[in-house]
Automatic annotation (TrEMBL):
<protein>
    <submittedName>
        <fullName>Aromatic ring-hydroxylating dioxygenase subunit alpha</fullName>
    </submittedName>
</protein>
<keyword id="KW-0223">Dioxygenase</keyword>
<feature type="domain" description="Rieske">
    <location>
        <begin position="13"/>
        <end position="116"/>
    </location>
</feature>
<keyword id="KW-0408">Iron</keyword>
<dbReference type="InterPro" id="IPR050584">
    <property type="entry name" value="Cholesterol_7-desaturase"/>
</dbReference>
<dbReference type="GO" id="GO:0051213">
    <property type="term" value="F:dioxygenase activity"/>
</dbReference>
<keyword id="KW-0001">2Fe-2S</keyword>
<dbReference type="Pfam" id="PF00355">
    <property type="entry name" value="Rieske"/>
</dbReference>
<dbReference type="InterPro" id="IPR044043">
    <property type="entry name" value="VanA_C_cat"/>
</dbReference>
<dbReference type="InterPro" id="IPR017941">
    <property type="entry name" value="Rieske_2Fe-2S"/>
</dbReference>
<keyword id="KW-0560">Oxidoreductase</keyword>
<dbReference type="InterPro" id="IPR036922">
    <property type="entry name" value="Rieske_2Fe-2S_sf"/>
</dbReference>
<dbReference type="Pfam" id="PF19112">
    <property type="entry name" value="VanA_C"/>
</dbReference>
<keyword id="KW-0479">Metal-binding</keyword>
<keyword id="KW-0411">Iron-sulfur</keyword>
Amino acid sequence: MLQTKQKVLRSFYYPVMPIADLQDGPKPFKIMGENIVLWLDEEQKPAAAIDRCCHRTAKLSKGELRNGCIVCPYHGWSFNRDGKCTWFPQSELEDPPKVYKIQGYHCEERYGYVWVALAAPITELPKFRYSDNPEFRKVDEFYEVIHCAGLRLMENSFDVAHVNFVHKNTFGDVDNPKPPKVTITSNDWGFEAYMEIPVHNKLNQEVKALNMDADRTVRKQVSEWFMPFIRQTNITYPTGLIHSIVTCTTPIDDDTCQLVQFVYRNDREEDVPATSIIAFDRKVVDEDMEVLETTETNVSLDITKKLENHMLSDHPGILMRKMLLALLEKHGEQEVY
């Protein structure tokens, strides 16, 4: 699937930038192949619009702010969060004509990030477990570009058969390649997959992120998929520790995404420093990307064939593909390769 060619995917919210990055002025970003500009309005709420002035097509992200509006660096035209031109200094008109406008986008702040939808959203922003629970802390981990399609990473997140091979140096067991049973419960905009995974604790021995000494353990894992490219994996260890990973892949173009990842944990900084938690997940992400960035971005699971023994009809990746294809069909689209 070429992610920028499916119009309905523009109708979802994606995290594009930490809200803190906008404190010193407007910033550019590319989402779904579109160049946009982000800024904070008069109420310090994030705003997003096309990064091109309607006058002489200059990049607005090179400009500055005036009364919560983005000001073009070329001729000083100003635009509000709705895209309306509020002032242009070459005219004495107090209210510029309505045709003087740029494309504004849906923009919200949540979980410390700016979220943008390029078209009218068809679903709300995801609600993450533990985000409002005072017994959990939030650790921001990664904000970086990856050379991998969003769907490819989502499929990988629910493909437990890869664990014992890709992650054999951290927590996988290559001598026990049979994947665990997965129980799936679907909903309107995704699904929940439950599994119990026996793992080595080799990675924990290196970075001490789990605050436990056992060589092996069983991870009880509830992974939630939020259509199209967001997942939350909630891992419960026998000690009662919950390590809940939120991973978002925001499409930049057809070959790259912005990876946004943060974690919720029911422990304390003095027991396990955030640096250890980040190092723990850094190893896992690096192992995944070493493989995923070698794959072809426009090739997804073939739901018509059982190419692998683990690709059964109830495999999460198969259900993911079926739900996305149903969404495309509902909106009169076909999958573009």
